[in-house]
Amino acid sequence: MGHVLNRSLAAVGMLTISLSGLADPVTIVQPFMNLENDGINSLGFAAGDFLRIGATSVTPNFDDGTFGYGTTTNLLTNQPVSRTIYFDPGPAIPNFFARYLTDNPALYGPWALTFVNGSQSNQAVVSLPAGQTQAPFVNSITLSGTSQNPTFSWTPPSGTAVNGYRINIYDKSLISNTNNGDVASANLQPSTTSFTVNASDFTAPGYSFQLGRNYSISIDLIQTKDDSSSNLANSNVAAISRAYADFTPSATSGPPVNLPVTLVNGQFQFNIAVVPGQTYYIDPAVAAGYDYRIGAGNPDFKSVVLPTNVGDGLYDIYGIGPGNQTTLLAHDWAGGTVFDFAGNGVSAFRVSGIDPADGLDPADVTAFVTGLTFEGSGLFTGTQTPLVVNLTAVPEPCVWCLMLLSLPLIFRGLRGRVSNRETHFARSPRSDKRLIMRRLFVMIPMLAALPLAFAAPGFDGKWGVSFGQSTRMSGEVTISDGTGTWTVYGGGGASKNNPCLNKRFPAVVKSVTDAEVTIDIDGNSVLKGCLTETLVLHPGADGAWTGMLGSGLAMTWARE
Predict the structure, then answer these.
(1) Sign of CA dihedral 359, 364, 369, 373
(2) pLDDT digits (tens, 9 = 90+) for 239-260
(3) Do residues 92 and 14 touch, judged by C-beta distance below 8 A?
(4) Domain-terminating residue out of 390, 407, 434
(5) H-helix or E-strand spanning residue 435
(6) How far is CA 455 from CA 251, 452, 480, 559, in A?
(7) Has residue 84 been placed in a domain?
(8) pTM of the model as a whole
(9) What is the pLDDT of residues 315-333, one digit of tens each?
């Protein structure tokens, strides 16, 4: 009877909570619709041109039962369009809702944004100014100052209307399917082209700026709907571009450093406006060496200055030609000394001779400052590819070597047995045949195993998949003998109406090497229109593998 009473009281309590929730009105703060141009980044956020709708704050939020959707009319087909608006919170924006749509002028008409919580709902209508276009990126992001107060500077693109800037700082260790990692945000006037980080900027409860952490900063160029600089809130943003750069707070000062973004394949990419005669300091990761390459249409490298404080400060410099053929240009070149590439410069070169035992973290982009000059003016959008050596990996025994080494011992053992037999009775042709057959019986399985020993590392097992851009989704992949299944699970309200979620799709491993894994996913064979593509994965940190879906959504696979 007591259990029944307790259940009844619990039911009454739940009903009371539910009714109380129904009584809470839905409040929308800063509903928005804007064009967004997102740059390459290491946060898992998709890069490209988007149309964004949502609200800076909706309360009660998703965790309290609120969901949202937007509706409009396609301007070309005159057909209705409806899209779910996802809950996308962060420490600095705990009630944030947003939906990113591929940029499509047919969807530039007004949108009605509706947020529902039980019987309560609220709606806001948002729109774009006529003729609005995507905003370009800022250029030449640099880092200077000290670890306690790092300063970021940039230059605006020429010929572009700028109504203001916005700074967002992301703590990369916080990013997950339920946290976008945004720990600080500030709006700046268009005349301001630098930002110095102060502890007071980090207002998220329980958070403070910390040394040694990996951060990413986005420097956003804002164009407003009313062409003013007095209101830079999301509701007045017509177009925004986001240029990202990674940094780790440094304990010392130094020259202004041009910061890269980290790509999913481990490369570091820059975006710097350059002129001849000026040295630009760049900061890739530290490994056993690097390959440096210019981007399409960039001026060639004229010279390089390498650091003096890494190992013995001596480096080998190679030119990289067609087919990635390398030519030694300098041996034991001293750091701090300018190396000038002869002639008209080079489009690619390699630096090696860095001792991995120095223990500098390949993820720290403020540990190996390199100075470059260029042959001409223009943008430098080139990359650095770290040549990483894994010092902690324990090599697997060479199985085929062990087998080959064991063959003489087997023959010796058989030979010994023959010799012993010969001391007791005379050998016969029939006994020789038996011995040969026995030897072959032992050897054939071992020889048959050689191809398996030479095969690429296996990818069998169970893998957990996490996605970037705070999608609130997760995945699971199970592989056995090169085949298995791929499943994506919806989290919370994100994509809850997506019919492709929570279904098992065939997965086939096509190739496996130490540097790359390719896997075919055939969702279309189960449900038409679901994910069907070849996934390409590359080695990540701590044994994980990273890659990107065709939609641009980054993912990380970790063995479970």
Answers:
(1) positive
(2) 999 988 877 775 555 666 776 6
(3) no
(4) 390
(5) helix 429-454
(6) 46, 5, 16, 20
(7) yes
(8) 0.58
(9) 999 999 888 889 999 999 9
Cα–Cα distance measured from residue 308 to residue 312, given in angstroms and rounded to the nearest whole number: 8
Amino acid identity at 516: E
| Residue 73 backbone phi and psi in degrees, to 5 | -120, 130
Regarding whether 490 and 368 lie in a shared domain, the answer is no
Name the nearest CA neighbour of 382 among 270, 470, 291.
270
DSSP reduced 3-state for 356: helix
User: What range does the domain containing 439 cover?
Assistant: 399-454
Strand pairing report for 314-320 and 272-274: unpaired
Query: How far is CA 23 from its chain centroid?
Result: 42
Amino acid at 515: A
Rounded Cα gap, residues 332 and 315, in angstroms: 5
Q: How far apart are the C-alpha atoms of 59 and 63, rounded to whole Å?
A: 10
Q: Nearest 5°: CA angle at 482, between 480 and 483? A: 70
- Report the side by side order of strands in the sheet with 97-102: 120-126, 111-117, 67-73, 80-87, 97-102, 48-59, 27-38, 237-247, 215-224, 164-171, 182-188
Rounded Cα distance, 180 and 468, in Å = 8
For strands 370-374 and 532-539, give the pairing. Answer: unpaired
* Tokens 């999608």, residue located: 471
Half-sphere exposure of 241 (CA within 13 A, CB side): 18
* 515 and 434 within one domain: no
**H or E element in which residue 96 lies:** none
- Position of tokens 């609200």? 55
For residue 350, is pLDDT > 80? yes
- DSSP β-ladder status, 215-224 and 237-247: antiparallel
Mark whether 428 and 497 lie in a shared domain: no
